[in-house]
Amino acid sequence: MVSLTNITGIIGPPIFAFSFAKTVTNWDGTLWLIGAVLYSILLGLYFLYQKIRAYKQLKSQTA
What we know:
about 0% strand; mainly alpha; elongated
């Protein structure tokens, strides 16, 4: 987990700077939109994971 944090610390800032530099002249809110989309995707994956986990627990209890 620490190595994943280190990688995101190295890769994240250049990606942010590049995205900001390319979109600041056209639309200043692009990075907010990208962040909202990423959070929405992660939230959807989390709820899907919870649903699958609950289904597996229910299935193991009835078996």
